[in-house]
Amino acid sequence: RTTSVLLVLVLAFGAYAWLFETGKSPSQMEETGPAFPTFQASEANRVVLRQGQARIAFEKTGEAWRMTEPLKTGAGKALWELLSSLESLQIPPRLEGVKPGSSQGLTPPEGSVSVSRNGTEIAGLVLGSEASDGQAAFACRTGKTEVLLLPKETADLLRKPLNEWRDKTLLRITRENAARISLTYPDRHLLTERTPDGWRLQE
Fold it and tell me: Residue 96: which of 39, 22, 37, 33 has the closest Cα?
C-alpha cells in the first residue's frame, strides 16, 4: 500500500510540474488523437459538401455510393479519398484564443462537409481560407469553436470541382468475361477473339 501511495504522489507531482512549466491549466491541455474518434468511413451513408453556394450530395445504398445532387450519377474516387482522410485525420494544430471569423474565411465559410449515418452527423468540418504558409487551411470541426490548421491535402479534397466527384468510368468489364473485341474506324475494321491459345486477330 505504501508503494502505491508513493507512486500516486510521484505522478501527481510530475503532472503539476509539467503544468507549472508550461503555464497551462488542466482545461488548457491540448486535445490529441483522432479528430473524429468514433467515425468509421464504412458506417457513413450520406455526405453533403458545400462549396460557396454550390451543394454536392451523396447517398449510399448497399455498398454503392451515388451522387444525388446536383447530378444523379455514380460517385467518383474522390469521395472515398475524402472519407478515408476524415477517418485518419488527427487533431490539427489549433490557434489558441482565436474565434472563427471573416479573417480566416470561416464566417461565412468557404466550404464544408457533413458526413452522417441514418440522419445523424458523425463527422463534419467547416473550411476557411488558406493559411499564409500555403500548407494548411483554417477550419473548424462542426459543433466546436476552436480554429484548426487543416492539412493542405484534406483542404484540397474539399475544394475539388464537381467533375472530380462523379464516376467517370465509361465501361465496367473484366478481362475474364471478355471473349470478343471489335474496333471500327472510318477506313478499317478490327476484330479479335479469345481462343484456347489466347487472343487472335481475326480481321
Answer: 22
